[in-house]
Amino acid sequence: MTASRPPLCLTQGDPSGVGPDITLTLYSRSRDDGEPFLVLADPGLLRRRAERLGLPVEVVEAEPEQAAEVFPSALPVLALKARVAGEPGQPDPADAPATIESIARAVELVHAGRACAVVTNPIAKSVLYRAGFAHPGHTEYLGELARKLYGRAVRPVMLLWSRELAVVPATIHVPLAQVPALLTTEDLVEIGEIVAEAFRRDFGIARPRLVFAGLNPHAGEDGAIGREDIEIIAPAVARLAARGHDVRGPLPADTMFHAAARETYDVAICAYHDQALIPIKTLAFDSGVNVTLGLPFIRTSPDHGTAFAIAGTGAARDTSLAEATALAARMARARA
Ligand SMILES: NC(=O)C1=CN([C@@H]2O[C@H](COP(=O)(O)OP(=O)(O)OC[C@H]3O[C@@H](n4cnc5c(N)ncnc54)[C@H](O)[C@@H]3O)[C@@H](O)[C@H]2O)C=CC1
Ligand SMILES: NCC(=O)COP(=O)(O)O
After folding, report:
1. Is the pTM of this model over 0.95?
2. Which domain range does residue 244 map to?
């Protein structure tokens, strides 16, 4: 950790999910030598959950500037305006305003230079939708917040990163039936540029090796099983190659994720959510990190969701959150 760098800012996530559990667990085991963080949450929620889990964690209200000093002895929490019920496993749309407030204020803190990165805890999209939340997920909401606060166009791109595999879904939280119409050559080129720049800047890879997955079985089998691979994805690959990128594709998605194939690239850009997330969650569920590229600030998150069934039981592993905080700190160092 660097004393002069502002702290990481963790959001509350859905208060009925495992976010409080993994935050408290990570704090318990990293307070002595870990990267200091501040949590934007209802302090009462964290106190109740710590007691339930039997974790001897003192929760102290603090400003971001006090976080590094407080961290070794107590969990620093910047209190939300809203209080939450946060009953483990019983999500309540009435708690949604606090969940949303936490995300929005975390972005305000990084914008003001009071936090070095946003690390989000999991939200349940359907619970927020029921409360009127108009964004598909964090990724899109963070893009909207960034546009407003920073006053410029932002194209948020979802990256799921692990030591085993890194993947980017070109389309994210959309119905599968809409995917072919949403894939455009221009958008894929823009995503490829954003991904290549991020791997250079944040991951220290001078010339990242990009591959694109095909949309159709066998990448369309020369057009016999769908033409999107030829008409949309291949031209994007050609355009990126012409700009000097190390890029291949479209590759048949069924044969590009085995061990030897993964050695040949740094990041796979996939056509849709599950094409990208199934391989990484199979290989690295406990250590995968969700990163939003293309934002004017750093955002990471554990790759898993709210896991309501195990919230408050002590069964939630904090390993993915630990990787998310470590990666956010690494990115902050790379950008310093
Ligand atoms: N970044 C985010 O905010 C994300 C949010 N979600 C949301 O989470 C909700 C639930 O989604 P699911 O598909 O059920 O996925 P999930 O990741 O919450 O759970 C899938 C399985 O993994 C287990 N699991 C998850 N995290 C774990 C942990 N830390 N330790 C041990 N076991 C763990 C769960 O108990 C369950 O068996 C959805 O509403 C979805 O929108 C899902 C993914 C990411
Ligand atoms: N499956 C990934 C996921 O749902 C996370 O999305 P986001 O909330 O980070 O946009």
Report:
1. yes
2. 164-281
CATH of the domain at 204: 3.40.718.10
**C-alpha 123 to ligand 1 mean position (Å):** 9
Same domain, 122 and 171: no
pLDDT tens per residue, range 116-141: 999 999 999 999 999 999 999 999 99
The verdict on the CB of residue 317 being under 6 Å from ligand 2 is no
Ligand 1 atom with the shortest distance to the CA of 13: 3
Known binder of ligand: residue 218?
yes
Q: Looking at ligand 1, which atom is closest to the CA of residue 316?
A: 30
Q: Over the stretch 262-291, which tens digit does the pLDDT of each residue have?
A: 999 999 999 999 999 999 999 999 999 999
pLDDT in tens, 3-57: 579 999 999 999 999 999 999 999 999 999 999 999 999 999 999 999 999 999 9
Nearest residue to 229 via CA among 220, 237, 241: 220
Q: How many domains does the chain have?
A: 2
Q: Which two tokens stand for residue 3?
A: 């004393």
Whether 61 and 124 map to the same domain: the answer is: yes
Calculate helix-pair angle for 185-201, 234-242, nearest 10 degrees: 50
Q: Is the ipTM above a cut-off of 0.85?
A: yes
What's the gap in Å between 139 CA and the centre of ligand 2?
7
CB 84 within 8 A of CB 98: yes
Please give the number of the atom of ligand 2 that sits closest to the Cα of 292.
9
Q: Whole-angstrom Cα distance, residue 325 to residue 298?
A: 11
Q: Is residue 225 part of a domain?
A: yes
